[in-house]
Amino acid sequence: MSYTRKVTYYTSSGGSSCEQQFSTVTHQSSFSSSGWVQVPQRQQQTVVQQIVQPTSATEAILSKGCETNQSSSSSPTPFDEAVLDEHNRLRAKHSASPLALDPAISRYAQEWANNIASRNVMQHRSNNRYGENIYACFGKTGVTGAEVVQSWYSEIKDYRFGESNPRNFGQVGHFTQVVWKNSKHLGVGIAKNGNNIYVVCNYDPPGNFGGQYPANVTRS
């Protein structure tokens, strides 16, 4: 049994046994036509908090600590591949081409996952060249790649297809980046500090550009 609560605010917070995810932030703050004021890049952040029962460690593909370093090899980890596979499974539902893992983007994502895990904070990277989704869970021993991506994709229930600029961007920004058609490459980073787990995904080209939603986020 779980209880879900969504709230938009501008600082991070945490707590035991909760999941948080920060929305992808638009690279063009062109929401004024839909009632949004223009804001600096990465000023607005949205958090989803969910009280959950911790998953069994045997169900999770995660044993990295903070301990934050990914393997020195450029080969993708099973967790990276699970995140990629779930992205592509869901993207196919919306006629979006598969993403490909990019080692350089994964290193970039891993650097930021290490950074925020070492500080135990939820924060977007400033001046980011890529699209970005961030997920964190607290008080859990592990998380699966599918679980992470599904948490973002679940925002589909609040998305209104066809809008040029979603008026409820703070509730749907993860979902739109996951299925954004023009994004082609994916980087995955994951780090753990105690029982706090942080996952960063970066996307190239970035998604969530104002005015481009109808072409990039389709119902099927």
Summarize this structure briefly:
With 220 residues, the protein is α+β, with helices and mostly antiparallel strands. 25% of the residues lie in helices and 21% in strands. It has a domain of 134 residues: 3-Layer(aba) Sandwich (Pathogenesis-related Protein p14a), CATH 3.40.33.10.
**CATH superfamily descriptor of the domain at 82-215:** CAP
| Name of the level-1 CATH class of the domain at 82-215 | Alpha Beta
Portion of residues in helices?
A: 25-40%
Classification by helices and strands: alpha+beta
Gyration radius (Cα, Å) is 16 Å
The major beta sheet can be summarized as:
7 strands, mixed
Shape: globular
- Give the termini distance in whole angstroms: 31 Å
- Quote the CATH topology of the domain at 82-215: Pathogenesis-related Protein p14a
Strand content: 15-25%
Q: Kindly state the mean pLDDT as a whole number?
A: 77
Low-pLDDT stretches: 1-20, 22-65
Q: What strand line-up does the widest sheet have?
A: 1-3-2-5-7-6-4
- Which series of helices and strands comes N to C? EEEHEHEHHEEH
Assigned CATH architecture of the domain at 82-215: 3-Layer(aba) Sandwich
Tally of strands: 7
Quickly count the helices. 5
